[in-house]
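target protein:
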Amino acid sequence: MANRPARRIPSPNEPPRPPKPLPDTLGGLRETGYVPRTVKAEIQANLIDRLQTGQPAFPGIVGFDDTVLPQVERALLAGHDFVLLGERGQGKTRLIRSLVALLDEWMPIIAGSEIHDDPMEPVSAFGIRLADECGDELPIDWVHRSERYGEKLATPDTSVGDLIGDIDPVKVAEGRTLGDPETIHFGLVPRTNRGIFAVNELPDLAERIQVSLLNVLEERDIQIRGYTLRLPLDLLVVASANPEDYTNRGRIITPMKDRFGAEITTHYPLDVPEEVTLITQEAQLVAPVPAHLIETVARFARQVRESTAVDQRSGVSARFAVACTEALSGAALRRSALLGEASTARVGDLMGVIPTLRGKVEFEVSEEGRELEILAHLARRAIAETFRQHLGGLDLSGLTERLDEGGTVESGDMVSSPQILASIGSFTGLSHLVNACEGEDADVTAELTAACVEFALEGLWLARRISKDDSANGVRYAATVHEEK
C-alpha cells in the first residue's frame, strides 16, 4: 500500500480557511456585486442586524447589559472611537476583543498587501502598483475577521516605529531608494487597516508616542519620518484606561482625549447573581465546587471591594473571585489525591486558600501586617451572609440535636466526605438542607451532601449556636457547652 501523506493538524491559533466559492481575482470579485464600505459602516450594519434579530451583540460579557453595553452600542452606531475607563479586572479588554464578532466574517484584500488593501480602493504604494499592473487579474486573498484586530499593551518602551512604522533597512539594502514608499516597514496601526485597533492602558503610553496617534484618530492618516506620505487608514480605534490615571495623573494628552468620540465607564458586577454568573463562566475548575460555595466567594469579593481597609482606588479585580474559586477546586482535587477518593470543595477549604489571594488586593497603609486577618474576617462575613440567605429560615434542629446528643463532626484536608456524613449520621431535614443550599435540581452525591452539612455547621458556628475548636485533622464542631451558674 502506498504511503499516504501525513494528515495536517491545524494549529488552535490558526484562522479558519476561506470557503472555496470565494473569488480569487478582482474580476471575479466585481461579478459578485461587492461594494467597498468602511469598517465602521460594516460594524454599524452588523450591530443593527443583531439588535433587530435579538442576537446578543457582545456574547460572554456579564453585568453590563443595562449600563455599559447600551453606551458602547450608541458609540458604534455613531461611528465613534471610544475609550473604556475602569478599574482593573472589570472586563474592559474582554469587551474590546468581543467587537471583532461585529465584523464581516471574510474580507477581500489584495494578495500580499501588508495593510489589507481593498482590491477596489488600494491605498498603499504596493497595492496601487499591483492594481495598475494586473487590472481585473489582480490576485485576491480573503482575511478572516479574527485577523482584523490589532492590540498593543502600552508600555514605556513602545516606540513610534512599533505603532506607525519605520524605514526597513533590508528593503533599502535590496537596492530601493530611501524615497521609495515601499521601503517602509509598517507598524501595528497601519497593519490593522480595515479593522479594529486597541490600546490597553493608554495612560502608560509616553506622551510623545501619543502624539503619533493624533492623526490616526482625526485625519485617519500616518506620517513616517521624512516621507511625504498620506496613507488614509480605515480603523475603529478603542482604548482602555484606569480612571485614576486618566483623570488625576494627567498622562493622556488633552488632544488625545478630545479625539475620542465617547468615554465609557465600566464597573464591577452590580449584584451577587451577576458575580456568580461571571465566576461560573470564567473559572476553570479541576474538581466540583458547590453552588453555595461559589456564591460565598462572590459575596467575599464584594466584601473585599467594600472594605475600608482596602485601597478603593485600586479596586478588586474579578480575577480575585475567579482565582479563589479555582483554588477551592484545587483544594478538593488535592484532598481527592491524598485520600484516593472523590471529593468536592467545602467551606473549610476557604481559609486555606486566603493566603494565596493576598497579592490580588491593595490594602491601606495603616493595615500593614493585618492583611490575612482582614481577609479571613471578610470571608467569615461572606459565609454568614450566604448562610442567612439559604439556611436562615430553615429548621436545622435535626442537625443541632445530633450535636446536643454528644455527637461531633471533624473536618479538614484529610477528612473524607463519608467520614463527615458518618460522624453526624442521618438526621431530620438533611434533604431540605441540601436542596436549600444547591437547589432542587442539583445532582446530589455524598460529596455534595457533606459539603452542605459542613456549610451548615460553619454557619451555625458563626451564628454562635454551636462551638468549633481546632483538632488533629483540622476543626471539630460540637454543641455549645453552657456553664452552670
Q: What stands out?
A: Residues 272-479 form one domain. The longest strand covers residues 235-241. The chain has a mean pLDDT of 88.
